Every structure is written in structure tokens, then in C-alpha cells.
Amino acid sequence: MNIRSQTQTKDTADTAFARTIDLDTSSVRELNQFLHDLPRALPPGSNATALRVLNPRGVHAVAAGVDADVTIEIAGDVGYYCGGMNQHATILIDGSAGIGLGENMMSGLIHVRGNASDSLGATAHGGTIIVDGNASGRCGISMKGVDIIVKGSIGPMSAFMAQAGTLAVFGDVGEAFGDSLYEAQLYVRGSVASLGADCIEKPMEEAHRAALYAKLAQQGLAGEVDVGTFRRYGSARTLYHFHVDNAGAY
Amino acid sequence: MNEQVKIPRTTPRFSATFDPHTLSEIRRAAATGIYDIRGGGSKRHLPHFDDLLFLGASMSRYPLEGYREKCGTSVTLGTRFAKKPIELKIPITIAGMSFGSLSAQAKEALGRGASLVGTSTTTGDGGMTQEERGHSNILVYQYLPSRYGMNPDDLRKADAIEVVVGQGAKPGGGGMLLGQKISPRVAQMRTLPEGIDQRSSCRHPDWTGPDDLEIKIEELREITDWEKPIYVKVGASRPYYDIALAVKAGADVIVLDGMQGGTAATQEVFIEHVGIPTLAAIRPAVQALQDLGMHRKVQLIVSGGIRNGADVAKALALGADAVSIGTAALVALGDNDPHWESDYEMLGTVAGAYDDWHEGRDPAGITTQDPDLAKRLDPIGAGRRLANFLSVLTLETQTIARAAGKSHVHNLEPEDLVALTVEAAAMAGVPLAGTNWIPGAGGR
Fold first, then answer.
1. What are the coiled-coil residue ranges (chain A) (predicted)?
2. A87 in contact with chain B, both atoms CB, cutoff 8 A
């Protein structure tokens, strides 16, 4: 395992665990084991641990299952399920991400500085995922409380069966948006190719603008876009109880 | 003579096609505009383990003494990749059944009963409850398409992870929990509004096929540091190919659920008309494992209509490493017990036929979220009954194994079996009794 210490262990708690892991010479298994061992290894109260991951080259499950208040910078593209089930960690990806980025994330932050593939934030319960570029289809599928912000556009079947949380898209949205939606809040600034079953446009009132502004401001994005330019979508709730007259919607 | 001849009337005769049940279903559908939904598994007659017989030892085989010579029952699951395989004392596990579908008392009772005899229980669609983790010494955590209540803390608390691809009662279908059972606790666990008709997804949101599943399994192993066995559960429909692909995807254990397997609530037409019988599923599954050189290396758990030790022994003889029970376990807890006959009559049914589990009015307090009904089930007493039942299944299995001359239940083999019908002989790949004819042999 090639984990380089950038500082000596005698340094303060805030810097004692600053590390670089090179995936050309270390395995994903070694990286993840190191991250999983962090809560036991960290001094009490430490919350400024930093880790830099080099040469990810699209490998899968990078930083999956982390449960520590640690910042992980990944220098390059990652494969499937990067940051899967993340708890507390801040994961910064200096590249693009494959399928299932942040799947079932519980808390923390994932920021992709490139594009993201399918099923971004699938079933994620909490935390925030930011994509500087575009995301592909099924973005926010079955999301359960996560906040997703995509600065570019997203593909079809996004927010399918989304249950809770917020999806804000600065660009355009593909077909069947919000199909079979539950109580997730959807905001779109660009065009929507089509709405899925039981998804409708709803009035964008002051309370919604304020809520969206707060979400963006929390991530330092308040000045990037005018929240007044977003449209809001949500569930019509007509499919919450089956009735034969709605059968055509299924 | 003007005597009027009385002509005898023909006895009213119901159509075999339009029988009384079918007629009533047509009327019910016309009145409501919705298909019939119910719990449980297939109710119609299907080729099953009863269509097989064991050949006890006589001259050509040598039996073991019942109660005197040992017949092992232990099984180890997850020996392929997991650092911590599961050791069970008996080859019978409790199938995945959700909190939401079942009451907390029922989940606790399952845990108590299974733990008393050294076997495992399984969570279900809805997440892990304290009741089942607290009372199940060995707990398998289901990773389902809906991912309701899915979280990494529970994943790490589990002893194994079961990736559910399908279910025998409804291969290709998702879960269903109607509004009556979405209590505040269930709604909170599933991040859903209270009281809605919840239909969970039939496919996983973040993978689309076996190649993706391989990567998904790798992620689950990474998250849990490669410690826990990964099961893959499939509903029986194309067992040869599904099992081969599950092996390829990296499963440690495969759970194969036949169409007699139960469900909390699904369309009647789905339960009765989709999938294949358990009996028909085992041999192709075992064949796939053997063709890949993985039989006994990737363990096979068979479920769907297991009722007694003979069923267990037959499944093992056909090549399973263990079986799993769901419906029988609920009956052992007290489901459909005649003690509640008057309550069943008030629901328009009788003890033994009650299957409207989705309505949440189960008199036995098992398939309900009504707190008053749920209190009717004593988890300690029900757990004891389940432990007794599991012990009986084990003793019965050992009895048959000894009669076949086996010192471990896993030594049972297809050669110990014959079939009573041509259909069962073809499906199970064993000879028709009194012949050496295996219909379809060589054509697999």
C-alpha cells in the first residue's frame, strides 16, 4: 500500500492524517479499508482530515461506504458507485463519474467537477450532490431525501419514483421527468422534454424560491443563477391510491 | 292413462372452466375495477415434492440407525469470497419477509424461533428493525430494488447481504403494500406519505443487468470490507441462465424461490400464472452450478412451498445446500389458526384460507400493523412454536437421510429419489417409479 504522509504524525490532529493514495500503486480495497478505519484512528473531535486520491482511472467503488467527516479529493475520473452510501464525507471529484454516483448516500457532500452518468444519487437519503456538468438518465431515481444540484442538463426518466429531497437543474431535462413521483421537490431552469405519469408543473411561489435559494446558498451557489427563472414540478398525487379510471396513466 | 310423467331434472353442473370461484372473481372485478390482490403463494395444484418418493435402503444400500447413529445437519454459507461465512446448525432458514408486511411482534418471534435452533432470519422490503436484529442471532439483510430503509449502518450490522432480484411468487414484479398498512412507523422507515398504496419497483435503480450486478456486488463487498456473504435471490423462471449469471456476478450464495413461494400482497393472476414450480427449478439450477464447477462452492438455498422434513430432504437430494421457509414459518407462529375462527368468519373467510394480508386485519396479529391486533401475538410463545417446528423439520429430514444410509443430510442425492408422475420425473430429473425412465433426460 502506497499511502504517503504529507506531514509527520507528531503534527496537530487537524493535519496528522493528511494523506495521498495513488491508485496506480494501491488498490481500491486498500483505499477503502483506510477510509473505513479512519473513525477509529482519528483523534476525538478531529474533523479536518484530508485525503487526495491519484490516478483513479475510472475504477469502481472509490470511497464507497465512508463514515467519517473527511475530505477526499479525487484527481480524475471514477467508475461506478463512487461515494456509495457515503456518510459525513466531502468527496470532490476532479473529473467525471460513472453510474450510481453517491447511490444511497446518507449525508455529506459529493461534488463532481465534470459530468455524471446514469442513476446519479439513486435512492440517496441525505446530503448534497453537485454536478458542474451534465448528468445522464435516471438522475435522482427513487431519491429519498438527498439534495441534487446539476448545473448542466439531465437525461430521461430522471426523478423516477423520487420520494423526498430536492432536485435542481440549471439546464434542460429529458423525457418522462418525475414519473410516478412522490414528495420530492423538482426545480428546472431550462426545458423539460416531457413529464412522466402523475408529475405536474406547480406554481413557483415565494416560499419555493426562498427554499431553493437557501439550498443553493448553502453550497455557495446563490449568485450563479436567478431562482426566479426556475419552474417547479411535483406530484399530482392522483396515483397515490389506485382507481380504475386512472389505469391509463400506468 | 293420463298420468303425468315426472321427468327427472339434471343435477346442476358447474363449468370446469367457469367454476364458482372464477365466476365470483369476474363479478368482483366488474364491481371494483381492480384485480384481486392477496398474500401467500400459489394455491392451485402444481407438481411438487409430494410427487417424489425416497428409496429407503434395503439390500443394495445400508441404512443408519435412527436416533443412534449421527446424521449431520450443519451448513456453511458463503465460503466463496466472504471473510466471515455463516454457520447454521440446520439447513433450514427463514425467508425474507418485511416489517410492514409483518408486525414487529411477528418479526421478533421469527428471530427468537430461528435463534433457538441456530439458524438465520432475513429482513425484507422496508429495512431492518430493532426487533429482528435484537432477537436474530444470524440476520440476513435484504438489498431490494426499492431500497426502503436501506442504510449502511444496518448493512454493517447484518451477518449477510441478500441482493433481491426477484421473488418466486412474482418474478418480474415489485412489492406492494396497500395504504391500510402504511402506519406512521412504516411510512417513516420507507420515506413515504402515510396511507398511500405503495408499489415498490421491480428492478434496481442503479444497475441494469448481470454485468452491472457484478460491479454492484463489488461495491457492497467494499462497503462491508469483504466480510459478509453476498446472496443473490431470484424468482424461478429461467433458473439455468439466472443461476449461471448470478455465479458470474460473484454471488457467494444463491436463493432460488419457486412459484409456491409466498408474498405479502400481489395480484392473484401474478401469483398463479407467472414463474415455475419449485420442483421444476431445482435441477436446472444445480445443473448450471455443476456445469460451471461451482456446485457446493456457491451454495444454493431453495424456497417455495417447503412444508415438512420430506420437502427439505427432497430439495437437498436434488442438490440444494439449504432451504428457506416463509409461509410455513408464519403458520407455525399462528397464522390462520382455528383459534381465531370467529374472527376469520367476520372477514368473510375461514381459518386456513385467509389471504387478504394487505388489508391489515389479520386476526392472528402477524400480517398487520394494527397495534391492537399485533398485541395478540406473543413473540416468546410464537418463537417457541417456530423453534419446535424447525426442530421437527430437521428431525424428519434426518430420519429420511438415515433411512437412505446418509451420515449427513447433504449426502442425499438424486439417486435416492423416484417420481410418481411423468411430469415430476421430467421436472426433477429422476426416474419414474418402477422404471429407469427419466423423461427428457439428455435434452437439458
1. none
2. yes
Q: Write b or e for each residue in A198-226: b if 16 or more Cβ atoms lie within 10 A of its Cβ, otherwise e.
A: bbeeeebeeebbebbbebbeeeebeeebe
Q: Which helix (H) or strand (E) segment is B35 a member of? A: none
Q: Enumerate chain B positions whose Cβ falls within 8 A of a Cβ in A.
A: 32-34, 146-147, 150-153, 155, 179, 190-193, 196-197, 201, 205-207, 212, 215-216, 218-219, 222-226
Chain B nearest-CA residue for A61: B219
Residue A29 has its nearest CB partner, among B150, B201, B222, at: B222
For residue range A185-207, list pLDDT tens digits in order.
999 999 999 999 999 999 999 99
Are B150 and A123 inside 8 Å of each other by CB? yes
- Grid cell digits, residue B127: 429495512
The grid coordinates listed for B403 are 433411512
Is pLDDT above 50 for A230? Answer: yes
pTM summary value: 0.94
Q: Would you kindly state where each structural domain of chain A is located, as residue ranges?
A: 15-127, 134-139+148-157+166-249
CA distance B309 to B332: 14
CB pairs under 8 A between A and B: 106
If you write DSSP's letter for every residue of B346-368 in order, what string do you get?
Answer: HTTS-TTT---GGGS--TTSSS-
